[in-house]
Sequence to fold (883 residues):
Amino acid sequence: MDWHLQDIGAVLAEQEVDAACGLTADEAARRLSRFGGNELQERGGTSPWLILWEQFTSTMALILTGAALLSAFVGSFKDSLTILAIVCLFAVLGFVQEYRAERAMRALKRLAVPVVRVRRDGVAVEIPAVDLVAGDIVLVEAGNLVPADCRLVEIHNLRVQEAVLTGEAEEVEKCAESLETTGDPLPTGERRNMIFMGTTVAYGRGVAVAVATGMHTELGRIAGMLQNVAQEWTPLQRRLDRLGKVLALAAVAVSLLFLAIGLLRGEELRLMLMTAVSLAVAAIPEGLPAVVTITLAIGSQRMLKRQALIRKLPAVETLGSVTVICSDKTGTLTQNRMAVMEVVTGTEIRQQTSGAGQGGGTGADRRGILACVALCNEAVLTEKEGQGVGDPTETALLAAAAQEGLLRHELEAILPRVAEIPFDSTVKRMVTFHAVADAALAASLGIPVHIHPGACLVIGKGALDAVLDLCDRIGDRQLAAAERQAALAAMDRLAGQGRRVLAVACGMGDRDTHAVRTFSLIGLVAMMDPVRPEARDAVELCRQAGIRPVMITGDHPLTARSIAESLGMGEGGRVMTGAELERIGTAGLAASCSEVSVYARVSPEHKLMIVDALQQQGQVVAMTGDGVNDAPALKKADIGVSMGITGTDVAREAADMVLLDDNFATIVSAVREGRTIYDNIRKFIEFSVAGNLGKILAVLTLPFLGLPSPLTPLQLLWLNLLTDGLLGLGMGVERSEPDVMARPPISPTSQIFDRRMVRHTLLTGGIIGTSTMLLAHHHWRFHPENWQTVLFTSLAFAQIGQAMALRSFRHSFFRMGLFGNPLLLAMVGAVILLQGMVVYLPALQSFFKTAPLGAEALAWVFVPGMTLFAALEIEKVVVRRMA
Fold:
């Protein structure tokens, strides 16, 4: 219901309550029983048992489980137990990774308040906030959290900090009168006669009637949206899911084909079943989920050193695919604080009437204006530079004055305050009266009036129209119509840049009666939330990397355009408002969102619309933000990025990544890391699939050449663990390739296996299979006692050469540096050592069915790996020259 548009009498009548007495205790109990408590309802999340069940019912896990049962059926219990152990290990790893309880709702609940002051039965009482009902008369004052959505009945200089809900830094000045609308729904931030659940009263006090509680509040609406947003799969998860299913189906198909051919040839059933199991085990990259998880985890550790905290591991890779970054303005691109950007002196305003242009003001004029706004001020500046206690606007004025060496407590020693007229939302100005304690020092401040002992300095600041009403002069001249128009034009110019403008005036009055003899407009002060110094460079770097930055804010369109242009974001483009979004709807937005880079006056639903429209276009969307209002869009986006310092708990819980330094530029570092991680995962997948292809060729072909079954399922599992596990782990920490940020984003529709990768995989797998089969066949003919061990070991060592060559898709191993990846070198040493133990230790020989190798055989097992390394390095040289 549009409570903000109704007269307060109509609101009280609708709620059936008297503002002076409040509800009766009986009526409140009845409403509580009927409508429920004032709390956010949390729907149940995914059960841990369901997450665990999903790990065991994945395609690869089911096939491996089937292979284990088949091994047990034919009597190979050792192989069966080993395969089942591998399945359980990877299921536990997957469970630990995916079991992240959804805590965004709990964070929202923490915004609720435990007790609230209300009028009931004509008496002010404190009650638990959960017992608050619609119709309760609520009493709020500075420091209170607002317990529900309320329509204001009366106010006393009430200002509310609504950044948690709207994302905007500036406190909202409230009123009690009904509002008018031009037809478009008023955004939450413009409903000035309403206060909303979870926001904070910054100044003053007020009386309000609760009109919505619990899930019916604005905060509750966001909670409902947050719970209704389905968890989106990342591009990596979609690609790996497709790849896993293809490889699994290929494994089953090859195994069944081999089994059928063998049975038709009259081979023994048990032997064929065991070989089929071996083929299935060889084809499935059992280590893929674990290595991908570990690679992402290591990548997230590297990102943590760059101030980016990864909450959900797939987000590391997703950053490499991002094509659009939708960024909130306040606290993300800007500093989330007010600052003085420009001071226009009275001299400069007067010169506009004579056509002299700007620049006529002196440093003394500027200093005098800043001295006045520091004296006519209620805030207190703290020792931390630029920060203080009090209204952000007044704190910004004190900070600007302090930069000129004008400190409020020192100024008040020269010009002590003797009276004041506090700021009032009706007159929109504040006036202070100061005795002259030291006329000489006062005159040195640059205040453009004649200060003399025994008089009273009067200073006023506020909205220009309100201050002009008091003025009869501008500087030392009469305030004529031309000067008045020049002042209004200067204000329009500054407001057009998205700045908040305050007018400053001063004059001399009688010390006893405070009667003002003359009042002069001395200048204008323009303020805004300044952009982060590093944000422009970060935006430009994103654009160089092929990423389109988009600003989404609840602020005024003029402010949004000014900030966007200063950042080089959407230059010359139009600003689309929330009202326009409502008119064109989702379909219209989908058609135009590729052309709009700045959105203003938007609500949480609009942010969801924008993200959804971009995703419908096939874009991979990152959403940055820090407020509660950002949480649904953060969850909907392919990757949500929350601010760590200024971000709310709700935003952090909904996000995939948290910027610990609140620095937009950190996203650029994260994108680089994301692209590197994606490269490393692709390298590992090619490494694993090509290696498994070589093993399949050996297992499938050698029996048809008259050799016995070459490798057992246990030996193949061991090979997969050595290569996919240890070598894969080393490949996962490879550093960035030199051109990683000169490439466009990874296409969301691209496959892991593109044409180049298929060609490369077939070449690599063919070399591994052919070279090891030739070696095994030679030893079977001339050294039959250890030919299977030669095949077993040569397959392991062949993939060492493959891992070294695959450190880069395009650049030579030697350009990447021999010691550029020390972990991979350590893993190579570990593979050689562990394989040597399996071959030479008697206890392991019986378990793995191996035989010791002599010096000549040991030398031969390194040949396939060296051959493969040389072939892949030559192939890279050829491709570079052809390009």
